[in-house]
Specification:
The complex is a heterodimer of chains A (123) and B (202). Chain A has a domain at 21-42 and 58-121. Helices cover 37% and strands 31% of the residues of chain A. Chain A is built from 3 helices and 6 strands, in the order βββαβαβαβ. Chain A has a 6-stranded mixed β-sheet, covered by helices on one side. The longest helix of chain A is centred in the middle third of the chain and has 18 residues, at 35-52. The termini of chain A are far apart. A 5-stranded antiparallel β-sheet of chain B has the order 1-2-3-5-4. Chain B is globular, with a radius of gyration of 19 Å. Classes of the chains: A alpha/beta (123), B alpha+beta (202). At the A-B interface, helix 1, helix 2 and helix 3 of A face helix 3, helix 4, helix 7 and helix 8 of B.
Chain lengths: 123, 202
């Protein structure tokens, strides 16, 4: 299975999904008008990863987005729900100290998704 | 009479050769109404990102606080993408002169994000119901409303999450102000104002 890499733009995120390290990183901005279309290859990769991934090893979902629109938010929820089938899913949620809204958004995801959530303040 | 080839020039000078003078009263009008930005025309993905970039640069220049800046940005994104996805373009003369509009106002207390667009009249009842529901909810209930929609609703055929108005209300912390003006029997002009107040430093 090949790793997935997508370079970010002004309105789409940088995404890096690694089969070996099981590290799935999202950073930058996610504001595509057609979010389902944008995230479709990410869902394909994750579906394949659910079959082939090492379930004894943790899978880390690194969330480093600074801006995301509501349709991206919905798709990230769907993605986390899918990945939460893995027994060792960890969500590392990064936020700036003065961004209480981003922390709150992460806390809301943690109420809806069965996974270990870690909130990490950026310096 | 001189033929004007360039459409942009024609618009700027349509009232005659001295109308460049109008730039000054227009500037005064914007200052008097605390307007940072006015846009009138079609709102699509491309325009959305240009407007966002302009407003973001403006807030950075003003040294705006990070949280306020992000809230204003988020409200703008939802507002502009709502219009790009849901504004209607009825094929009749009365409605066709109404373009979408987008304005940002700013004073010492906060930012005001105002939009207007044409919609089909048959959407009004449902939108009114959704907006009135949102305005009746307090902070905690808005949060559970948001989470309920996110966890239960499917995406619409336009890729929307039906969360835009809820998100705008949450970022605002205030009521969403809205109105519908009848254009004709088929179409209405929908105006929405969201305010984002700056955090008071104690």
């Amino acid at each position: 299975m090949v790793n997935f890499k997508s370079e970010g733009t002004l309105n789409t995120p940088t995404i890096s999904l690694s089969n070996e390290t099981q590290l799935l990183t999202f950073s930058g901005r996610s504001l595509p008008e057609n979010a389902p279309q944008f995230y479709s290859p990410v869902f394909d990769w994750c579906n394949a990863f659910l079959e082939s991934g090492n379930r004894d090893m943790p899978t880390i979902f690194e969330f480093k987005l600074e801006y995301f629109n509501t349709s991206s938010s919905k798709l990230i929820y769907e993605l986390l729900k899918l990945l939460s089938q893995l027994p060792n899913l960890e969500v590392h949620w990064y936020f700036e100290p003065d961004d209480e809204d981003l922390l709150e958004a992460g806390e809301e995801f943690s109420e809806l998704i069965t996974a270990k959530f870690k909130f990490i303040e950026l310096n | 009479m001189e033929t004007v080839k360039n459409e942009a020039i024609k618009i700027n000078f349509q009232t005659g050769k001295d109308s460049y003078n109008n730039a000054f009263p227009l500037q005064e009008l914007m200052i008097g109404n605390n307007l940072l930005l006015i846009y009138r025309g079609q709102i699509n993905d491309h325009i959305t990102h240009s407007v966002l970039t302009m407003a973001e640069k403006n807030m950075e220049k003003n040294g705006e606080e990070n949280l306020t800046k992000k809230r204003v940005f988020n409200v703008m994104v939802e507002c502009l993408q709502n219009i790009a996805k849901h504004a209607d373009d009825p094929d009749n003369q009365a409605a066709s002169k109404y373009n979408s509009i987008f304005l940002i106002g700013h004073d010492e207390d906060g930012y005001y994000i105002i939009s207007g667009n044409v919609i089909y009249g048959n959407k009004v009842q449902d939108m009114e119901r959704r907006l009135n529901l949102i305005n009746s909810l307090d902070k905690e209930s808005l949060k559970s409303h948001y989470m309920k929609i996110m966890a239960s609703n499917d995406l619409t055929d336009k890729g929307g999450a039906s969360l835009g108005f809820v998100e705008m209300a949450r970022k605002s912390g205030n009521q969403l102000k809205f109105s519908f003006e009848a254009i004709d029997s088929e179409s209405q002009f929908f105006v929405l104002q969201t305010s984002v107040m700056k955090k008071k430093v104690a």
